[in-house]
């Protein structure tokens, strides 16, 4: 089973619902919407429609990240070092509780923890991520998308210990652990990208290697490419 969707609604929601069976919510990374919004989105969707969502950046990204400014989040100067990188701080766990509350109201199935390249493999970061996932309940399927040079052995150790999906762009990395596979298509040369039909056929061959796969497009032509990919799946 290959589920195809976009990272964020493309076009009108009602039109999107007719074309796809899953969407990955992006707003939850930048700034959590009101809890009433989660309830509204859930009630708007058809019965079998699925939501996945990105974890709030206060958990994964430092307060110095430009994504905080983009979201209009202002952190007090004396607390800036208490956010991000899965640190075992009250601030990070409070952010998680808010994120979890939204996900439950949305009835999200998978939460994706996308990390910045600055979250590198070192003893402190490894200890932080392990402590974080050992401290939270397994209320959802968790997927981790590391950036930068993380060794295969380290990724597998963390994912196996906490039953986390290793989330990747399949054109750039191999997913080392977890089912279902969760692929995020960021564009081969970057966000401003349009996948060719040959590339989408190659993606299909990658997906066929596993029984259960999510393919979430996250590029400028995501709607076009996701629809083209669905046609390839239907054809074969």
List keywords for this structure.
236 residues, 10 helices, single chain, TIM Barrel
Can you characterise this structure?
By secondary structure, the chain is of the alpha/beta class. It has a domain at 13-167: Protein of unknown function UPF0759 (TIM Barrel, Alpha-Beta Barrel). The chain contains ten helices and eight strands. It has helices at residues 13-19, 27-30, 35-44, 57-60, 66-71, 90-106, 123-135, 152-162, 197-207, 222-235, and strands at residues 2-7, 22-25, 50-54, 110-114, 141-145, 165-166, 181-185, 213-217. α3 (35-44) runs parallel beside α6 (90-106) and α9 packs across α10 (222-235).
Query: In what order do the strands lie side by side in the largest sheet?
Result: 6-5-4-3-2-1-8-7
SSE order, as H and E?
Answer: EHEHHEHHHEHEHEEHEH
Distance between the termini: 13 Å
Low-pLDDT sequence parts? none
Q: What shape does the CA trace take?
A: globular
**Rg (C-alpha, Å):** 17 Å
The assigned CATH architecture of the domain at 13-167 is Alpha-Beta Barrel
Report mean pLDDT, rounded to a whole number. 97
Q: What is the number of beta strands?
A: 8
Instruction: Please report the number of helical segments.
Output: 10
Note the beta-strand portion.
15-25%
What's this, in brief?
This protein has 236 residues and is of the alpha/beta class. 41% of the residues lie in helices and 16% in strands.
Question: Which SSEs are present, and which pair or pack?
Answer:
Layout: E1 2-7, H1 13-19, E2 22-25, H2 27-30, H3 35-44, E3 50-54, H4 57-60, H5 66-71, H6 90-106, E4 110-114, H7 123-135, E5 141-145, H8 152-162, E6 165-166, E7 181-185, H9 197-207, E8 213-217, H10 222-235
Parallel strand pairs: 1-2, 1-8, 2-3, 3-4, 4-5, 5-6, 7-8
